[in-house]
């Protein structure tokens, strides 16, 4: 897996059945949304919620991560060394999205797209939440140059909601393992 082309975004649903060891060894960057709680080598953690930020800043597991927050939170907590200010996402304005009301998952996806990685592997995104599902479709529409791989547990049932979206592919853990193995 070419680390310059690929990034992983962790949503809010815990991913327990996938071993990220090989990805950690390859240096693939990982963005955690909100309190994505795991022992992975996550480079970036992103949130727009003050309570979540306080939990992150007070928990040792997050000490080695760059915590990306909107400007209003950054100004309030800028004395913390691990804090970084969220870039201005031009596409947010086009779609009339407000950085204060977006989910941490959506912000993590916007950050991955803004960083211009070719392939975004999305683990733990809550598709049962209709708002999050529509948000993912909007993000894909706003960033046609990114290929988003929605990664899920192996399941014989197909997900049809992405059939009309050219830059979202549904893959399962086994397919991602093959890509990693062949890299």
Keywords, separated by commas or semicolons:
eight-stranded parallel beta sheet; 20% strand
Work out the helicity level. Answer: 25-40%
Radius of gyration: 16 Å
Reading the helices and strands in chain order gives: EHEEHEHEHHEHEEH
Q: Strand sequence of the main sheet, in spatial order?
A: 5-4-3-2-1-6-7-8
Globular, elongated, flat, extended or rod-shaped: what is the shape? Answer: globular
Instruction: Let me know the average pLDDT.
Output: 85
Report low-confidence residues grouped into runs of 5 or more.
none
Q: Profile the largest sheet.
A: 8 strands, parallel
Distance separating the two termini: 4 Å
Count of DSSP strands: 8
| Structural class determined from secondary elements | alpha/beta
Binned strand content: 15-25%
The DSSP helix count reads 7
Describe the protein in words.
- The chain is α/β, with parallel strands linked by helices.
- The protein contains 7 helices and 8 strands, in the order βαββαβαβααβαββα.
- The protein has helices at 21-26, 50-57, 71-77, 90-94, 104-114, 130-142, 173-181; strands spanning 6-10, 29-33, 44-46, 66-69, 83-85, 119-123, 147-152, 168-172.
- Strands 5-4-3-2-1-6-7-8 form an 8-stranded parallel β-sheet.
- Strand 1, helix 1 (21-26) and strand 2 (29-33) form a beta-alpha-beta unit.
- It is globular.
- The mean pLDDT is 85.
SSE map:
Layout: E1 6-10, H1 21-26, E2 29-33, E3 44-46, H2 50-57, E4 66-69, H3 71-77, E5 83-85, H4 90-94, H5 104-114, E6 119-123, H6 130-142, E7 147-152, E8 168-172, H7 173-181
Parallel strand pairs: 1-2, 1-6, 2-3, 3-4, 4-5, 6-7, 7-8
């Amino acid at each position: 897996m070419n680390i310059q082309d690929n990034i992983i975004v962790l949503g809010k649903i815990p991913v327990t059945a996938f071993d990220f060891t090989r990805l950690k060894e390859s240096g693939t960057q990982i963005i955690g949304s909100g309190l994505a709680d795991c022992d992975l080598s996550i480079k970036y953690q992103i949130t727009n919620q003050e309570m979540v930020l306080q939990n992150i800043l007070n928990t040792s597991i997050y000490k080695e991560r760059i915590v990306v927050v909107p400007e209003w939170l950054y100004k309030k907590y800028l004395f913390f060394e691990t804090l970084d200010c969220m870039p201005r996402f031009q596409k947010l304005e086009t779609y009339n999205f407000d950085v204060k009301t977006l989910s941490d998952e959506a912000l993590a996806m916007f950050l991955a797209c803004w960083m211009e990685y070719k392939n975004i592997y999305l683990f733990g995104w809550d598709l049962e939440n209709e708002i999050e599902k529509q948000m993912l479709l909007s993000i894909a529409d706003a960033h046609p140059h990114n290929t988003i791989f929605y990664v899920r547990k192996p399941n014989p049932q197909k997900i049809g909601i992405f059939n009309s979206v050219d830059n979202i592919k549904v893959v399962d853990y086994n397919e991602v393992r093959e890509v990693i193995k062949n890299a």
